[in-house]
Amino acid sequence: MRYGDSSEDNARLLAASYNAFDAAASRLNLNAVELAERMQSGMLADLLKALEDLHGSAPEVQGGICQHCGRDYIGDDSMALSGDCPSDDCPAHIARVLAAEVRGTV
Questions:
Q1: Confidence band, pLDDT 50/70/90 cuts, at residue 1
Q2: Which residues are 65's β-sheet partners?
Q3: CA distance linking residue 12 with residue 8, whole number of Å
Q4: What is the CA radius of gyration of the chain?
Q5: What is the pTM for the complete model shown?
Q6: Predicted pLDDT at 43
Q7: Where are the domains of the chain?
């Protein structure tokens, strides 16, 4: 699935993006509005670091369950019981993809 294929996809992407943005703001002890205001003054590098710190080094999927979106991959032979969540609307997946795009590693 490609982002933006339908209004439902766009709504899910917007909600997941906001959740990731809000989580990053919380990590910096800010609210989303404060973070947006600070970003206007060059805080993008701090946001990227906060997203990467929030994502952490622990696997998103642990014991077959995504720790961020709650998807259950137990019994899914195509998915390991630990690793990165492949779901397009998982906040951790979105944060990982956006951080890679900003860093130019996609």
A1: very low
A2: 62, 72
A3: 6
A4: 15
A5: 0.51
A6: 67
A7: 7-57+89-103
